[in-house]
Amino acid sequence: MSTMEAVTAKFADLAFDQKLDRLAEVAVKVGLGLRAGQELIMSAPMEALPLVRRITEHAYKAGALLVTTFYGDDPSVLARFAYAPDASFDYAPKWLQDGIAEGFRSGAARLAIAGTNPALLAKQDPAKIARANVAASKAGKPAMELITRHEINWTIVACATPEWAKLVFPDDSEEMAVAKLWEAIFVASRINADDPVVEWQQHGERLKKRVDLLNAKRFSALHFKGPGTDLTVGLADDHLWAGGGTTAGNGVYCQPNIPTEECFTTPHKDRVDGTVRASKPLSHQGTLIEDIAVRFEGGKIVEATASAGEDVLNRLISTDDGARRLGEVALVPHSSPIAQSGVLFWNTLFDENAASHIALGQAYSTCLIGGEKMDAEELAKRGANASLIHVDWMIGSGAMDVDGIAADGTAEPLMRKGEWV
Fold first, then answer.
1. In this structure, how many other beta carbons lie within 10 angstroms of the beta carbon of residue 149?
2. Bridge partners of 416?
């Protein structure tokens, strides 16, 4: 038996509670890098209570001052769409979001647990969904800006829930689907290693080497070529590549996404041209958008189609002026554990780490040299996009080639058939 087979067998023998505890430990020690004396503000679906309790225990063991958790409930969300007055969909509790933002400014860390039903709002009025999303985005902007600027240490992990599991494994019983989804989450989150914390440290070092190489190249653009895709993505002036862990503005080193396999940077909002076709469906606010195909001119989407969810896609890109432009471009090898699992998670946290991707909307200011100190006008001058949204969708595959384009127009192979050269 090989070393890897032995580790896999050992992990399989662990009880579910032990695996859950490993995920909670990674979330606190690796994802957040939580410091003694910090508050933790957590959000989670109701079904995540066992994981929330494990994370809370590890947070207090790490010296957390206080852990505060906000719970979401899918049936309550549906009740709003069924019975709330029309005015409800233009409203969001700004007072609550302002309080959360103040918590972040006061030093709190942020942890979100993903797990809501991706198809929850599939049968609801797209216009109401769009209005509610705009209202929530506006109310949450102060807190979101602190996150996108990486002013605080934050992370996202996932928990399996019945509705989500049945979407991923529709042919299994609910019990079996949940069990399969949990195992897929555990493996994708790299807690099946002998020592998950050490494994994450080593994984972070591998990502950093790739990031350092990309930063040394100083490409002016990337060219994507694959089925339905011939896209040139200009990179923002003074762009920086990032990937894996990052040191937040408060000095804490954290791993914002668990799992993560990407190297990403900021595109120039006015220098994206060509056509691109999504390689995976996009689950957005309860609606599944399939077979996305768009055309860019001068950085802006001028044509967009989808075989399902096209109305939601068009409403999404009409959110504001920046919603038709890119705020992120990321490279992910097709050999990533998530891609090789063959599982379509219908969840961007996972699916974006199965393929190279782009994101519509808000750019990360930390992906520009000195960007965290720039105001909105300075960021825009360097090409960073501004928007109320930030939505990733996957374009990479085992058939995708990517070239780095130098300032003189010279092309250098970066990926062939989805793999690093």
1. 17
2. 419
CA–CA dist 409, 219 (Å, integer)? 10
Q: Where are the beta strands (DSSP E) in 236-335?
A: 246-247, 253-254, 263-265, 267-277, 282-284, 287-289, 293-297, 300-305, 326-331
DSSP one-letter code for 94? H
CB 268 within 8 A of CB 336: no
Say how far apart CA 328 and CA 370 lie, in whole Å.
Answer: 17
Q: Is 317 exposed, middle or buried (0-12, 13-18, 19+ CB in 10 A)?
A: buried
What is the spatial distance between Cα 257 and Cα 350, in angstroms, rounded to a whole number? Answer: 9
Q: Are 282 and 293 in contact (CB under 8 A)?
A: no
pLDDT tens string 365-396: 889 999 988 999 999 999 999 998 999 999 99
Rounded Cα distance between 184 and 13, Å, is 16
41 pLDDT above the threshold of 60: yes
Those residues whose C-beta lies under 8 Å from the C-beta of residue 297, and which sit 6 or more positions away, are 273
Q: Is 365 helix (H, G, I), strand (E, B) or coil?
A: helix
pTM value surpassing 0.90:
no
What pLDDT, in 10s, does the model give residues 279-299?
Answer: 988 888 767 899 999 999 999
